[in-house]
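Practice problem: predict the structure.
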Amino acid sequence: MAKAMDDLGAPGTLLDRETTRQLDDNGFVVLPGFMPTQQVEDFRTHLQDLLTAEGDRAGTEVNKEPGTERVSDLVNKGQIFDTCFTHPLLLAAVHHILGEFKLSSLSSRMPLPNHGHQALHADWSGEPPVPGNYQVFNSIWLLDDFTHDNGATRVVPGSHLRGKAPADEMPDTKATHPDEELVLAPAGSLVLFNGHLWHGGTQNQSGKRRRALHAYFTRRTNPQQLDQAAFIRAETQDRLSVAARFVLDA
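Answer:
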């Protein structure tokens, strides 16, 4: 792990104090302006090409979610997505929370008009861990502005420290939590968050697209949401470095 982090330019000192504090205390941090405008446009174009080409098959490698458009297995669908699992700052944040880690899945999610509301949940199906013994980490790469009415993610700050699941406190996890807040940020932002933070998508009431990429990581001892070694294509292996393939565990 240390060798891969070093080779990918992600030393343990890369995270600044404030980013570290927000991850530790709030469970998430928003980094506006993380992606330049052209990169955002390139992501949008490539995703639309994939949605058009895959049609009803889009997203089936992991799951289909009613009311959303998804594309899965993005590791194998263009070099453009490599940064989503190799960017040094992202990897430094993942390592800070998980220690030894690997990519679990890389996908996109777009809630359709009047759809997209999710129950509050954590990204871990097992027992909520003791704080500090975290198992999963997630990130959202914003390809459109996240606004009050277009399906922005809601979070409950600090909920990763509770050692509970949302259902332990809420009779209806789709309801509004008194401590929740919306993650509102412009396109080009990166949201980093502890996967045990309570969160969920909201309904897209805007009638417009709300596109995002999700790079999801887990500890190396856990199974992946998508078995990267089973799915990896020869051309993907050929273009990636040894360190990048280590992050995939492929």
